[in-house]
Amino acid sequence: MTIVKIVLEVIVVIASILLTLLILMHKGKGGGLSDMFGGGLTQNAGTSGVAEKNLNRWTVIIALIWVAIIIALGLMTKFNIG
């Protein structure tokens, strides 16, 4: 394996963990699994609109990075690069 492929694999693992954490931080919309596991208890705490928008932005950015790296690793495997 080349250094590039190893670095990309490490980045995809870190991005996967970070993406999971970011998704879990989102406010539940109510009535779903988030309420079953205690999401309904935090409704009174509330979040600011700016914080929620920034959380959404970071989630989308990390998801796009994750997808791009997965595609790059797939192409490297397909064409035997690295």
UniProtKB/TrEMBL annotation:
Topology relative to the membrane: Multi-pass membrane protein
GO biological process: protein secretion
Keywords, in A-Z order: Cell membrane, Membrane, Protein transport, Translocation, Transmembrane, Transmembrane helix, Transport
Top-rank taxon: Bacteria
GO CC field: plasma membrane
Major localization listed first in the record, in broad terms: membrane
Location in or out of the cell: Cell membrane; Membrane
Annotated GO MF terms: protein-transporting ATPase activity
Keyword Iron-sulfur in annotation: no
Keyword presence, Protein transport: yes
Transmembrane stretches, start-end: 7-26, 58-76
Family: Belongs to the SecG family.
Job of this protein: Involved in protein export. Participates in an early event of protein translocation.
Protein name: Protein-export membrane protein SecG
Gene field: secG
